[in-house]
Write a structure and sequence with these properties.
four-stranded antiparallel beta sheet, alpha+beta, Multidrug efflux transporter AcrB transmembrane fold, 13 strands
Length: 767
């Protein structure tokens, strides 16, 4: 009585619930998986909100007139909104989509001293255009117009060190991207970079509420003339977490209620229910605490799936109480009698859950620890605490209609039923090759069609860079990586001209290899002849610009702009989404717009250390890997269970009989899915692994028959099946696809395994 509140207080003090879906679903056991996990967690593009402000749809003529006569223009409204959003704590920066962020402008200006080293990705090819003496008058006039433009202050700061504005030539591709964006956005499109990770749903929920509040306040001042729409990975993250939170609450409540109803139906005892629920509550708390101590946090989905253990952990007290109620012996005597079977049954269940930790699915590592601690606690409390609590409880003898009749029917018609069973096994075996495996992870995602439509509508206002697909560059050092990146960018330019990729975001000229800088400097030095400099001064005079201030064309700086210096400047922040940490290597990414994946991959062929990377493809690869590991662990789990059963029984025939119902149910369920054309995922396999670990318990109790009363034993198994179906069936109510799939697999497995026990295991004799 004292231990439970202490455990509860300790758990509340220690627990930290994790809501990051990435932490549950994405493996990190190879370099590509770690890369994917890092991108999903903190990728630059994945933390961006795409925000569109538009005029509100008129509902009547008067409202239409008020909107058209709104004193606040869309551009002015958006400008003020940018200023308000920039003040939010969780906002890193926010800017109009048709303009570069302020830190980009400052960073570009800082590159002016290095203009001679980074003016072109293809200096030899561009030299004839950039250093044509006949065009210098036009260049000087262009400089004059730039100095007189609204960006004159920015241009003046660059022109003092780079009169030809060569450094801006390297950034012209970025300028064209913003010009294209300007045509699409029409002033109402904003980009907001959040500080928290995209999948930190708690922080993103807070941020989204703040964004809507800022907009609503400003919109009220403008007569509610505008509406706001948002898209981006964080929007989906928050929606998904909301669904998961609802699932956790729903599954926990429904599972508990159903288990309570089954218990009361079986035993008609509120006092016994009270004690059993305390035991199970303590087991749940122990599981939560153990998971927190091992992983430093507990994922919300772990708690949802952990709620299913309420039914499993209730099985152990139920076996004890069924025997108590029928034979009217003391709870202590019953638990001593059944303890070998209870311990072995708990061990096989732990083996099944433990096997989950080796399937590669990171979330199931938590569930394995949770189950191990919960089941161990439930067994210990059932053995040493529950008997004392049940001393004064009156228990109704559990009787379920049809249970005895099914056992008798299997006994009377065993030969016929076994013949039908053998035919079924053969047919099932022939059906297995028809199984359709699900390798498309997206099919396991939540149904968010409404959000997807909104996302597509919002993204139509923006350029088409896709955060989940990019060209990946890998090398052992920075110089090699940058040379490979530049080679890839040259190839991407060709693919863009061929229409294979709409656009891309590269690293040039933010980061430039020493080799390319040396080539640029050489071309620049050769072009900087006395005649060229005289022609430039003449152009300045004709344009009316100061020759003293702008007429001196300086030679290239002696030292190249090193990657270390760039990464020690604010530019590192600009490139954060394209620079990734690897194992003793440099990993760079070039972001892509709309493209043809097959033709793009073919176009990149032959470039060393360069490949096309897709988050979607990697997720699908993980789905296949999870499936293969799940099948392996299914076989290993059954083998380990058989080993422990043999260590207790020392009888190979009993071992095979114990495993037969669960193995047969496994075969029939796979065959049924094959015939129905059901796509089978790794989650289906994991669910069947759990059902096997539970069905093996049925075989253990049925063969042991320690109470020497097969009717009582099978009624206890029936009661256990009901509580298991109640808890796992509740998972089927969840909207997260993981939960209904596990509910279906486990429910089918335990039901079929329970029904096959009296058929495949000969009825024990009563004594």
């Amino acid at each position: 009585m004292l231990l439970f509140p202490l455990l509860l207080a300790l758990t509340v003090w220690q627990i930290r619930v994790e809501t990051d879906l990435n932490a549950f679903f994405t493996a990190t056991d190879d370099e590509d998986s770690r890369l994917l996990s890092g991108l999903l967690k903190s990728g630059e593009l994945s933390r961006r909100y795409l925000i569109v402000v538009e005029q509100a749809l008129p509902t009547n003529a008067d409202h239409a007139a008020s909107v058209s006569d709104s004193p606040v223009s869309l551009v002015a409204f958006s400008t003020k909104l940018v200023s308000q959003l920039a003040k939010l704590d969780d906002v890193e920066q926010v800017w109009p989509a048709d303009q570069p962020p302020r830190d980009w402008i400052d960073a570009v200006a800082s590159y002016a001293p290095y203009h001679a080293r980074l003016f072109s990705l293809n200096p030899q090819a561009d030299a004839s255009e950039l250093f044509d003496s006949a065009k210098l008058e036009v260049r000087a006039d262009g400089l004059k117009q730039a100095l007189l433009s609204p960006q004159g202050g920015f241009v003046k700061a660059i022109a003092k060190q780079d009169p030809l504005l060569l450094s801006l030539n390297g950034f012209k591709d970025l300028q064209s991207q913003f010009q294209q964006q300007s045509k699409q956005s029409q002033g109402g499109a904003l980009i907001l970079q959040s500080r928290p990770a995209a999948l930190d749903s708690e922080a993103q929920t807070r941020l989204q509420a703040a964004i809507h509040a800022s907009f609503a306040s400003q919109n009220a001042e403008a007569g509610n003339a505008y509406r706001l729409s948002m898209a981006g990975v964080p929007v989906f993250s928050v929606a998904a977490q909301s669904e998961i939170s609802q699932d956790v609450t729903l599954v926990s409540v429904v599972s508990s209620v159903l288990v309570v109803l089954v218990f009361l139906f079986l035993f008609h005892s509120f006092s016994a229910l009270h004690w059993v629920m305390m035991v199970q509550g303590a087991s749940f708390v122990v599981g939560t605490l153990a998971t927190t101590l091992v992983f430093a946090h507990v994922h919300s989905l772990t708690l949802a799936l952990g709620a299913s253990l309420i039914g499993i952990c209730t099985d152990y007290p139920i076996h004890v109480m069924v025997h108590c109620a029928k034979h009217r012996n003391s709870p202590l005597s019953a638990v001593r009698l059944l303890w070998p079977s209870l311990a072995l049954g708990g061990l096989t269940t732990v083996i099944g859950y433990g096997a989950l930790g080796f399937t590669g699915f990171p979330g199931f590592e938590q569930i394995a620890v949770f189950a191990l601690a919960s089941i161990a606690a439930s067994l210990g409390l059932t053995r040493w605490v529950l008997p004392a609590l049940l001393t004064k409880s009156e228990l109704h003898a559990a009787h379920l209609p049809g249970i005895g009749a099914w056992v008798d029917f299997c006994g009377r018609h065993r030969q016929v039923l076994l013949s039908l069973f053998a035919v079924g096994v053969i047919l099932a075996g022939f059906s297995l090759p028809q199984i359709r495996w699900m390798d498309y992870m997206q099919k396991l995602a939540m149904d968010m069609d409404t959000l997807k439509q909104q996302d597509a509508t919002v993204r139509s206002h923006f350029s088409s860079i896709e955060p989940g697909r990019f060209v990946l560059i890998q090398a052992g050092d920075w110089e090699t990586a940058l040379q490979r990146s530049e080679a890839a960018e040259r190839r991407l330019k060709e693919l863009k001209q061929a229409g294979i990729v709409s656009e891309y975001h590269g690293l040039f000229p933010w980061l430039v290899s020493n080799a390319l800088q040396a080539e640029n400097a050489s071309v620049y030095g050769q072009a900087l002849t006395p005649a060229f400099q005289d022609a430039w001064r003449a152009g300045l005079v004709k344009a009316g610009l100061s020759v003293d201030k702008l007429g001196t064309l300086l030679p290239a700086v002696s030292e190249p702009l090193s990657a270390a210096k760039v990464l020690d400047s604010p530019v590192r922040h600009i490139l954060s989404g394209q620079l990734m940490a690897g194992d003793k290597s440099v990993i760079l990414s070039l972001w892509l717009g709309e493209h043809d994946p097959v033709k793009l991959s073919e176009g990149l062929a032959g470039l060393e250390g360069t490949r096309y990377f897709s988050q979607k493809d990697q997720l699908d690869h993980l789905a296949g890997k999870y499936r293969d590991r799940s099948l392996v662990m299914l076989g290993i789990g059954i083998g380990v269970m058989g080993l422990f059963i043999w260590l207790q029984q020392r009888d190979l025939r009993k071992v095979l009989l114990t495993l037969l119902p669960s193995a047969a149910s496994l075969l029939f369920i796979f065959a049924t899915w094959a015939v129905m054309g059901e796509e089978v995922s790794f989650l289906h396999v994991i669910g069947l692994l759990l059902s096997v670990s539970l069905c093996v318990d049925y075989g253990i109790f049925f063969i042991d028959n320690r109470g020497k009363d097969s009717d009582v034993t099978y009624h206890a198994l029936a009661a256990s099946t009901l509580t298991t179906l109640a808890s796992f069936g509740a998972l089927g109510l969840g909207k997260t696809p993981t939960l209904p799939i596990l509910a279906l697999s486990v429910s089918l497995g335990v039901t079929l395994g329970f029904l096959l026990c009296p058929l495949l295991i000969q009825k024990p004799s009563n004594q």
